[in-house]
Amino acid sequence: MLTRNLPFKGDYDSAMIYSILNEEPKELTEVPKELQQIVDKCLAKNPSERYQNINELFNDLKNQKIIEGSRTTTRTFVRKKKSRKIIYLFLE
């Protein structure tokens, strides 16, 4: 959703499943590195390395100043000649 591209590629269902299970997602070059680290943790292969609940994710997003508090905030990411606004909505 951040880049309008899927993190894993596959021409057919079983190829996509293989990619999800065995390959690392491509790095997001058009987002801040702090957000990349959070995305990487969300997509970790090992379940114990992922966020265990939404509060852990929410806290990391707040600590990295990607979101603020429990209201809607926006960030604009510039990607080459395009600008895109992403809206986050989190309720506590």
Give the strand tally. 2
| Low-confidence blocks of residues | none
Described by strand count, sense and barrel closure, the largest sheet is: 2 strands, antiparallel
Number of helix segments? 3
Cα-based radius of gyration, to the nearest Å: 15 Å
Average pLDDT:
78
Structural class of the secondary structure composition?
alpha+beta
Rounded to the nearest angstrom, the distance between the terminal CA atoms is: 22 Å
The percent of residues in helical segments reads 25-40%
Instruction: Tell me the β content.
Output: 15-25%
**What does the overall shape look like?**
globular
Q: What is the chain-wise order of helices and strands?
A: HHHEE
Strand order of the largest sheet: 1-2
Q: Oligomeric form of this entry?
A: single chain
Question: What is the topological layout?
Answer:
Elements: H1 13-22, H2 33-42, H3 54-63, E1 73-79, E2 82-88
Give a concise summary.
Helices cover 33% and strands 15% of the residues. With 92 residues, it is of the alpha+beta class.
Notes on the structure:
This protein has 92 residues and is of the alpha+beta class. The protein has helices at residues 13-22, 33-42, 54-63, and strands at residues 73-79, 82-88. A two-stranded antiparallel sheet has the order 1-2. Strand 1 (73-79) and strand 2 (82-88) form a beta hairpin. The two termini are 22 Å apart. The model has no long low-confidence stretch (mean pLDDT 78).
